[in-house]
Amino acid sequence: MKANPPLAWHPVPVSAPVNLRWWLMHQESLTRLLQAHCEHFRVEPVFQTLATACIDELEVMNLRRQNQVLVREVYLRCNETPVVFAHSIVKKEHLRGAWRGLSRLGNRSLGTMLFTNPLIQRTPLAFKKLKPHHPLFERACKQLQMRPINLWARRSLFILLRQPILVTEVFLPAIHQL
Length: 178
Known about the structure:
Blueprint: H1 18-25, H2 30-37, E1 41-51, E2 69-78, E3 81-91, H3 110-116, E4 121-122, E5 126-130, H4 135-140, E6 151-160, E7 163-171
Antiparallel strand pairs: 1-2, 2-3, 3-7, 4-6, 5-6, 6-7
Binding site for substrate: 72, 110, 169
Pfam family, one: Chor_lyase
Function: Removes the pyruvyl group from chorismate, with concomitant aromatization of the ring, to provide 4-hydroxybenzoate (4HB) for the ubiquinone pathway.
């Protein structure tokens, strides 16, 4: 049996802890789900710039290594505790098209926009256990007091007018307290 390459994302989070699987597999808006589970919810923007995509994002976004994308990263906080690190990328040229408002979201939820527009289509979720060498693991851990051994993430494409945005959500240890 052939081993999965280290960059692979999987259609099912088979080895994820049972109490995390429910969060990972939830198909609707993660923003709305978190809002229902905490008294105070907020989006904290931490990074937004034009950059190159992570190596495991290139194929799914049909990018070359040198292509510029808008990278937006935020923490989703429940009662001031970061519970999810969200990372989204969109091709630079699509910022003048379907995703033109993305660069001005600020502390507003991208999820709210994605799940209220009936023209946006979502691809199936993919899952990965992120290890410390993965760039998203490193960035997700910046505000954590203790670094975990690994972090589970999920991602999917949202497509508007044939223009995709890739949204990756990294679940932080505090999610278990909700």
